Amino acid sequence: MAIQPEGMKHLEAEVISVKGECSAGHKAGDKLKIGCWDTGGLCGFFYHDIFPNLNVMQFGGQYPWGSADELTLECPDRENAVTIRIRKA
Predict the structure, then answer these.
(1) Which among 50, 52, 54, 58 is least surrounded, fewest beta carbons within 10 Å?
(2) Taking the model in full, what pTM does it have?
(3) Spatial CB neighbours of 73, under 8 Å, sequence gap ≥ 6
(4) pLDDT in tens, 2-43
């Protein structure tokens, strides 16, 4: 388990779709607890790609084009795209 500041909650991620076949083995319906200190088992390439979004969500920020409580993101592998929904826990 990763160390993180007291009171800081993980974010919940759910794989909502997979186009093709994910080389990391992610499947629709997979649920992960992730955050800035813990990949939660998410593919390293995907985690690296979405880290700035996790940072914004976990520290109370919000993008002007989305909800402060939820984001839907797609992995960088466009041939085998995994889409996840991230929510504040």
Answers:
(1) 52
(2) 0.86
(3) 49, 50, 53, 83, 84, 86
(4) 566 666 778 999 999 999 999 999 999 999 999 999 999 999
